[in-house]
Design a protein that fits this description.
Oligomer: heterodimer
Largest sheet of chain A: 2 strands, antiparallel
Radius of gyration of chain B: 19 Å
CATH topology of chain B: Rossmann fold
Order of helices and strands of chain A: HHHHHEEHHHHHHH
Number of strands of chain B: 9
Radius of gyration of chain A: 21 Å
Shape of chain A: globular
Structural class of chain A: mainly alpha
Strand content of chain A: under 5%
Number of helices of chain B: 9
Largest interface: A-B, 25 and 31 residues
Strand order of the largest sheet of chain A: 1-2
Distance between the termini of chain B: 27 Å
Number of helices of chain A: 12
Number of domains of chain B: 1
CATH architecture of chain B: 3-Layer(aba) Sandwich
Structural class of chain B: alpha/beta
CATH superfamily of chain B: P-loop containing nucleotide triphosphate hydrolases
Order of helices and strands of chain B: EEEHEEHHHEHEHEEHHH
Helix content of chain B: 25-40%
Strand content of chain B: 15-25%
Largest sheet of chain B: 6 strands, mixed
CATH class of chain B: Alpha Beta
């Protein structure tokens, strides 16, 4: 749910970055949003650990407050700011191919989102490969990790910073709702299907890709919202996995309950 | 009755710890001998786990300091090992028994380093010591309480440390696991390892430990079992809890001069 919170809470960061630099250059906005993303994580952790609030309460308080601040900033400076909440929240993935990078020579090298998200993709993969053991142990048993001399706080903030940057970079092109859907649904589906962390990561990537491709064709065929169709396909895949796991686990239960009779 | 020792393996000096300005441990000053099985005993909320966590550096100290092997914690981290309370982790985490025990080797592994063959052998050896080698590929979500505790013990063993800290290893485990754990503790003690255990059950104290720490916010006693496990000191530790007190005096009669097998 931290991803959900971050995707909303970075709004004031985007607005402030825009007001400060006066441009809608994506790198400036990414920095503004990234800083707010880390601040959000920090506030959530702070309220949970020091304020003894439940984690869902601290998430709720932090992101609604920051998001509201962002909305006020947009409405107060609405004359000067060419940003609208609708676009930030829902994004429009169909416009991504139109926003291309054209080199000085006039050569069109493709949509800017590919370069931005491609960079984020490589960084995230490098982070997961380099820190796999540390991420795993600090998530599973933070106190034990500390007793080994691995800083649970450091790795938690690193992880949350990466969630924050990924969220910010993605929703600039696809909108917050699709980001939240894809942060959670493919991973939840994979969690139902396997109990091995490595397989789970790979499987959730495959499910994410399938949802995106499936959603694209669904949107084409019904001429509807692309983001909506992709999130729906992700939800349907989760539903199929859920039903599949329920049916197969019932079979297993039947076999075990029959065993004592045979023996 | 607080007995200080020469050349202590652990020295706790004037330790106070508080949560939100409310003191949990107050002016605890003790030293512990090496190679002993040490029990930390006291009523609920006495600060037993807090003492353990403070020694392990998991909590901020309000005052005092702790030396392990005459050095601050940071310099001797690789010599100590920790078994947290079983409930402190999410057992639905997607991983296997083998992987959890391998975490015991992570302290020695750096970034990007993969476990070597030697690490795997240590992990298997630790699993066999707790009788769990047959479960190495089992998902941790499919373990019973006793098996979970054995996995945690195996993980601590895989660290190959000198000093072991265990937080209520006997809580909610079956009789077979309790017996297996006690045997393991004795074996470790025979290998001159120091084991410090937060313990709850007064019935078994005299049978399990060589040295006890009686704690109720303040340190009541720290000494060899024959000197520290007395009705007067237990009364002082458990204070006005009358129903408990009668039980305690009965227990002491039974366990006064325990046979150690």
């Amino acid at each position: 749910m931290v991803g959900d919170a971050i995707s909303h809470a970075v709004l004031p960061g985007i607005v402030i970055a825009f007001l400060w630099s006066g441009s809608r250059d994506s790198v400036t906005m990414l920095i503004g949003a990234g800083i707010l993303g880390i601040l959000t994580t920090f506030l959530i952790e702070f309220f949970t650990n020091k304020g003894k609030l439940q984690s869902d309460a601290s998430i709720g308080v932090t992101f609604t407050w920051l998001f509201a601040l962002g909305v006020i900033l947009i409405s107060a400076f609405t004359g000067q700011v060419d940003l609208d909440q609708e676009c930030v929240l829902y994004g429009e993935i169909a416009y991504v191919p139109l926003d291309t990078i054209v080199l000085a020579s006039g050569l069109d090298i493709g949509p800017s989102a590919i370069y931005l998200l491609g960079t984020v993709f490589i960084l995230v993969i490098a982070f997961i490969i380099l820190g796999f053991n540390q991420l795993k142990i600090t998530t599973f048993d933070p106190q034990y990790a500390i007793s080994l001399g691995i800083s649970a706080t450091l790795w938690n903030y690193l992880l949350m910073s990466f969630v924050s940057f990924t969220t910010v970079a993605s929703f600039e092109s696809v909108g917050a709702i699709l980001v939240v859907a894809f942060l959670i649904a493919p991973a939840a589906t994979a969690y139902l299907l396997t109990q091995d962390l490595k397989k789970m990561i790979i499987l959730s990537c495959i499910i994410g890709i399938l949802s995106a491709i499936g959603g694209h064709f669904l949107a084409l065929s019904i001429n509807g919202s692309i983001a909506g169709a992709m999130a729906s396909v992700a939800g349907v895949l989760f539903g199929i996995a859920f039903v599949y796991v329920r049916i197969t686990s019932r079979k297993v239960a039947k076999i075990t309950s029959a065993e004592p009779i045979n023996a | 009755m607080i007995q200080q020792v020469e050349n202590p393996i652990i020295e706790v000096h004037d330790l106070s710890v508080s949560y939100e300005k409310k003191p949990v441990l107050w002016d605890v000053d003790l030293s512990l001998p090496s190679g002993k099985l040490i029990g930390i005993i006291g009523p609920n909320g006495a600060g037993k786990s807090t003492l353990l966590k403070s020694i392990m550096g998991l909590l901020p100290l309000s005052s005092g300091y702790i030396n392990i092997l005459d050095k601050p914690l940071k310099e001797v981290r690789d010599k100590i090992s920790y078994v947290p309370q079983r409930e402190s982790v999410d057992w639905d985490f997607p991983t296997s028994v083998f992987d959890v025990v391998m975490m015991g080797r992570y302290g020695q592994l750096g970034l990007l380093k993969r476990p070597k063959k030697a690490d795997k052998e240590i992990v298997m050896d630790s699993l066999s010591k707790v009788g769990m080698e047959a479960f190495k590929d089992r998902q941790i979500s499919q373990l019973s309480g006793g098996q979970q505790q054995r996995v945690f013990l195996a993980r601590a063993l895989a660290q190959q440390a000198e000093i072991y800290f265990m937080d209520e290893p006997f809580a909610g485990v079956d009789a077979a696991t309790e017996k297996a754990i006690v045997e393991l503790l004795r074996q470790m003690s025979a290998e001159k390892k120091t084991v410090i255990v937060v313990h709850h059950d007064l019935q078994s104290v005299a049978r399990y430990f060589d040295w006890i720490i009686l704690l109720n916010m303040r340190l009541v006693a720290s000494g060899p079992i024959e000197n520290a496990f007395t009705p007067e000191l237990l009364q002082e530790t458990y204070g006005g809890k009358l129903t408990l007190l009668t039980e305690i005096s009965e227990l002491i009669q039974k366990n006064r001069f325990p046979n150690r097998e």
